[in-house]
Structures are given as structure tokens and as C-alpha cells.
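Lab notebook, bench 4. We co-purified these components, and the gel suggests they stay together. Before we commit to crystallization screens, I want a quick structural picture of the whole thing.
Request: model the full complex, all chains together.
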Amino acid sequence: MSDRGDPVDGTGVGAATSADQSGFERPGEVPLLEMRGLTKRFPGVVANDKVDLLLYEGEILGLLGENGAGKSTLVKMLFGIHEADEGTILFRGEELKPSDPGDAIDKGIGMVHQHFQLVPPLTVAENIVLGAETTRAGGFMNRRAAEARVRELSRQYGLDVDPTDVVGDLPVGIQQRVEILKALYRGAELLILDEPTALLTPQETDELLAIMRDLAADGVGIIFITHKLREILAVTDRVTVLRRGKSVGRTLTADATTESLAEMMVGRSVVLSVEKPPREAGEAVLSVNDVQVRDDRRQLKVKGASFEVRAGEILGIAGVEGNGQRELVEAITGLRSIVSGNVSIDGQEVVNRPRKVREMGTAYIPEDRERDGLVGPYSIADNLVLTHYYEPPFANHGVRDFEEVDKKAELLVERFDIRTPDIHTPVKSLSGGNKQKVIVARELSDDNTLVVASQPTRGIDVGSIEFIHSQLIAARNEGLAVLLVSAELDEIFSLSDRIAVIYEGRIVAQRDPAATTREEIGLLMAGGEVREDSAA
Amino acid sequence: MPLLAVAFGLIVGAVLIVVSGDNPLVAYRAMLEGSLGGSDAIGRTLEKATPLVLGGLAVAFAFKAGLFNIGGQGQLLLGAAFSAWVGFNFDLPAVIHIPAALIVGGLAAAILGGLAGLLKATRGVHEVISTIMLNFVAANFTEWMVSRDGPWKDPEGGAIARTPLVQDSADLPRIAGLPTGFLVAVLAAVSIWWLVNRSTLGFEVKTVGSNPKAAAYAGISVTRIIVITMGISAFLAGLGGAIQTLGVNGRFEPGFQTGLGFDGITIALLARTNALAVIPAALLIGAMDAGSTLMQARTNVEPEVINVIQAMILFFVAAPSVVRWILQLSEAEDVDTGVDLATGWGTT
Ligand SMILES: Nc1ncnc2c1ncn2[C@@H]1O[C@H](COP(=O)(O)OP(=O)(O)O)[C@@H](O)[C@H]1O
Ligand SMILES: [Mg+2]
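Here is the predicted assembly.
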């Protein structure tokens, strides 16, 4: 009954069908939200193709899917940003056709966008009241009442937000709570969270999940969009999986496993733990000796880091973001000057000239792919030669050779399975995972000796993560030295041959993954005490 | 879209002409005749368009690197003064004299522009501020050079501040009735187009303009590109001044062509920063300027109406959403570069 008209294709979504008998639908109860056959077309793509969705009061629904699967589009129709081409939305059993977000808010729907819509110089209370109707005649806002109400809501859901704080001074995690408060303040009964954990630290994520549980316990329905299977399993009641605009699986979370969800998402079975043959590491390729580096505000951010990465090994640097990883990586790749100490690659000292460092055999996958690694309006082809555009065969004596560029691009798009209609498509129109594949293709396709990969899979879908992990392992197997910097413990543990922990600009420990635990590394990342005995 | 903007500008102008009690058809007819009716008129249009092509190129090229060069006026003055100096001070065969005067004029301007680039790249001084300030420096410097005690003063000029006339060998001739200066400008436009779209330097310039962080990541020296871009941009503006000197005025007089540097912005916008499109855009504005004299002679329309029309064209080009709103075009139909212009100039 629930798979109306859109049978799950043959990829084995057993959970969805068996769920039907075990409370997937609750006869006699009016669902908080029901979507029937929702379709949305954009020029050239069907972003949502007859999507069904079901959610009861007080439940958390996980909306899962790779980048570009149509998750945001679906909730934007619910929030009145897009108008559905076909299909109906029932909210508490009544047809809902929000004309714009304001209308959706009036009907009791709240949405927290991935990019916050806050005014940084205003206080929390001012932001929350902005545009809502607790204004007095003449448009003056009743600050007192607003602050009191915000404080009350904040206490009720354990949000711990001070209404008088200035938003611009707050960390990302708290700003997000302000967004949630904003929605609750306007009486949201259904809250949409579009990839809310993408920007959060592991700790902030845990706190957010706890808040979501509190909200649900109070009767608020939540649609939670994420890529991360762990989060889906931890907090949701039911899951809808989208793939290429279609709802390919609907199940109660209790009936799902990491593997079954991953399989629905990518449409084939996914290797979640990577195959990594044992391998003897060779000579040191990268050596970092007592390096100090300043950040953009000229504060010392790396305070004496030393380590080596040898040929044929992956050294994983674990750490909570903001402990000097960015500055360290930029110093190694020549983008930032080194205050003291030195870095050498194959015995050659690194200078503050990125092109020189590249030419010494370094590939670099940067942490912020949109900001550092790609030029959005450029074609995929131009981005694939972004670091080699000036050399033969891509250019001769300062004249670009577009035939050669295109030839290379065709090759890489094929080899790295970059999903795009054309190599001349602007790279900004690709999904996150495909953008990252463009960078990985560019960086891992030449002859190098060192790969520096910073947060290489942040915010991308499972299928692409699997692919990028396998590429990094392949580089290691070919004898390259790989420096992996990641805040994801899963990633660190599944890829690293050795683990180093960075805390407040220092490498506080180095461990053999086989001889340590997630707990120990987690503790070290948080600045906990070091057990000296197991140090390498 | 630019064509629509031109049409809108002309319609607004027609309304103004009607309001001031004249017949817009008569006025526009006179304008057309004065700019295109006969080889004299066409020659005048091309002459007016020449510095506009170069001024427009200067702005358009700088914009590729995300830079807003509004120092065209000062750069043009330097180009004009230095080319005049080479023109009157040296005795050379024409084949050497003309290129030398043009190039020296351009280089003098390039140094001024490069300085603004250097201030931006190393000290973070916004190029809009520095180029405006350097406009004053250039205006005062060139004025002093030809003033009573200045080294380039025309000894026969009496109280008039100006250089001597350039030698005949530095005079820009006409080739097949076309002003050579215009041909040089067209050549410059084609070269810039090629540079932007086909060379590695152009790729570097555009990369710095689109994403300076990614440019640094790719190993491009952002400092170097900013200085080079401002230098080339200013060279173009200076070349405009040099051609005006050698081809039209015959000497340098301070303060000539005031406002020309700013017309470059109109033209760059009209051409949406495409180097080849700068040519028709400059011809359009040049034709209006050339035709305004006859228009005044035949009607009572004030020449300022032409300025209003040009300003309206700029307005409609810079604000495509306004045009779209007027025409009720759908959002999906056209994603306009005008939007990019607006954001790009704010960010760097
Ligand atoms: N405003 C839009 N115009 C055209 N295409 C769009 C628009 N928004 C999304 N798309 C396309 O619709 C598809 C689904 O996108 P989206 O809903 O953002 O995916 P997700 O949130 O799952 O990553 C993608 O192919 C995307 O390129
Ligand atoms: Mg999305």
C-alpha cells in the first residue's frame, strides 16, 4: 500500500516492504504530513519524481540521499519556495499549498536552511523577532516580551541560548539553535532541518541530536536531511531514501541497518570498510620539523609540530577542527609562510610558493573545495587543469591548447566517474561529491610522491566517499606518501597506517591504529591526558 | 539585453525631447545624419569612438581580474602628455616615431596603473580609492609639466599651458579614409580578446577575478596578476590618450577630454566586459557624441539630453532586473551577466 505506484527497484530494499506490516502506517491516526506523488521538474532534470512521504506527529523522519538526489527540492516545495508540478501535500489531513515561505510559516512549518539566514550584528532575540509579529503598533518591537519568550523556549528544549547575545559572536552550533528557536517562536509544528550537521563538530552534532529528540518528544514533527547514516540510525523514527529524484526506499529506522540504507542510497552494495592490504612503509617523503605557523590573524596556530610521512603509508592526523590543521597543511603546501622550523619533501625544503611545492611532486586536496580547490564559473575541463594549465601539453609558450585540455578532461571524467552531461559544464553546477571528484581526479592523476588530503570527504555522499577512499588507498599502494587530515574518526581509523593527534597546534600523540581505540583518540583530540607508553 | 537597454534609453530621450518642445524624430534624424551621413560624419564618429574603445577595454579588462579601474582619466592624461613629448621632442622616421610615441604614452599610464595594482596587492588599498587619487596626481603632474615653468611648455604658447605641436612624423595619418587610431583601437580590442580567451595569462587573470583563493592554490601569484592587470588596463587607457593627441589634438593641453575615463565604464558595461563587444558599444556612444552637434543645430534640444540618454542606457544595462521587470520576462529565460558585474565589483 505504501509503495503505491512506485515499486522499489530490484536492489533489495527488503526493509521497506516488510515494514508495512509492522506499523509503517498507523490506521486511524491522521498523519502530520503526507506527500503523494510529488513531482518537480527543472529545465533538464526531474528533481523529484512522484515522491511519497509519511510522517506522524512527534516523529523524526530522516530524508537520505546522495547529493543531487532531490532532498532540498522536496522540502522547498513543502516550505513554499518551489511550487510542485504534480502531486499533493496533506498537512494534518488538509491539503497544503504554501504560496511562499511566509505562508508556510503561518501554517506551522519551520525550516532551518543549511546557510543560516541570520543578521550577525543583531542579538538573538532581535533575530528571532525579525519579521515575526510580536511588534507593537507602529512596528516597534516588544523586546522584553520577545526575550522572555525566547528564554522560555530555550529552557523548554534545553537549547541554552541567551537572547541578549549578539549572533555574529556565536559559534556555528549556537547560531543553528537560534534558527531552530526562530522556527519554534513562530509556532512550528513541523520543523525541516536541511543538512544541519554538515557544519557541526562531532560534539555539536550530538547536542543537536539530543535537542531533536526533545522536540519530537514534545510533539514536533521533524524532517531531518543528512548524508550520514550514523545520524539517521541514531535519531530518526523512519527514513525515506531518495535517489535521482525518486523515493527508492521507505522504512522504519528500527528495520534498517547501515548497509541496507547505504545500498538504497547508491543503488548497489557499498563497501563501507575499505580493503587495505598490509604494506611496508618506505623512506620518509614528507618531514615536518618543529614547525610554527601563524593564522590569518597573525596568531601562532601551529606551535611546533613534528612528524614524518613515509612512502606507501597513510598518516592520519586526527583533531577537532580549528586546532591548527588548516595552517599546518597550508604551510606544507607552500600557501602559508613558516615562522620557524622546516618542512621538506624528498629532502628538498618547502618554500612559500605553492607552484614550487607542486612541482616537487605534491598533490593537494584542500579542506574547502569550493573556496580553494575550484573556480565555480569555470568548466569542468578548466578545473581539471587548474594546476597544470600553463604547462605542455595544455599550453605552449603562453598559448592555451584547448584540444589537449578537452582530451585530458574527457579521460579524467571517464576514469574518475564524474557525473556530468558535459566537460564544458560549469563546475559549480555539480553536486558536492562530483565537485570533490573533479579535485581528486586532478590531484591524483599525475605523477606525484606526496598527497596531502584535508577533510577529503566532508559533506559528500556515501558513494563518493567510498570512491575517494579507494583512490587514496590506491595512491598509498602505489607507494605514495599520503597525509590525511580529518575530523572524522571513522575515516581516520579506516584509512590510516599510523594516527597522529593534533591538539592546540601540537602533535600530542602518534599511535598505531591496531593498538589504540576510538575512545583514546577521541580523548586525545579533546586535550585529554596522554599515556606515554604506547607512543610510537 | 544591451540592445533593449539602448532602445529604452532612446525612448526616455524621446520623451525628454517632446517635453522640451521638440520633435524627437527630427532630433534623432539629425543625430543619425551627423554621425553616419557621409564620410566626414563617419570619420568623426570613428574619431570619437577611438578613445572610447580603449577606455572601455581598460575597464573591461581590469574587471576580468575583479578589479575596478576608474582611473582611466588620469591614465589617459599621462598617455597623452608623454606621447606629445615623444611627438614634439624627437625627430624620427614616421614608422618609428608613431609607434614609439604611442608605446611611451601607454607605458607611462601603465606605470600609474601598476602602482594602483601594487598598492592593492601589497597594502590592501582598494583600487577604486587609489585610482581616483592617482587621477588627481596625474592631472596636476601633467598640468605642471606644461605650465609656465614646466619642462614641456610650448615656448610659442604665451600664457597658454600646452606642449608644442608634435612633429609631422608623429602625426597619425588616415589609411583609406579611416583614422589610423581607430584601427589601432580595433587591433587592441582583438588582442585583448585573444589574451583573455586564449592565453595562459588571460586564464590567470580570470582565475584571480573569479576566485583569488583558488588562484593562489593553483600556484598563481595573485600579487603579480593584480599588478600586471592594472598595468595593461592603464596601458589601454593611456593609448587612448596618445591616439587622441597624435591623431586629433596634435599636442597636449591639460584637462582635455574630462570625463572620458568614466565613459569607459559605460562602454564596458554595455559590452558586458567582452573585449570585442566593446567596439560596437563605443561606436554607439561615439555616434551619439558625433551626432549631437547637428542635432543642436537643427533643433533646440540641449546636448545634455545625449548625456541623459547615455546615462539611461547605462542604467538599463547595469540593472537588468529593471528591464526584466518592465518587460515581465520570466526569471528562467536569461541569467544575465549584469548581476555578476554588480556582485563582482563589491567583493574585491
Ligand atoms: N533552482 C533550480 N533550478 C534548476 N535545477 C535545480 C534547482 N534546484 C535544484 N536543481 C536540480 O535538482 C536536482 C536536485 O537538487 P537538490 O534538491 O538540491 O538535491 P539534494 O538536496 O538532494 O542534494 C539536482 O540535479 C539539481 O541540480
Ligand atoms: Mg541539498
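The pocket of magnesium ion (ligand 2) is lined by residues A 71-72 (CB under 6 Å). Worth comparing against the SEC data before the next meeting. Residues 54-275 of chain B form one domain.
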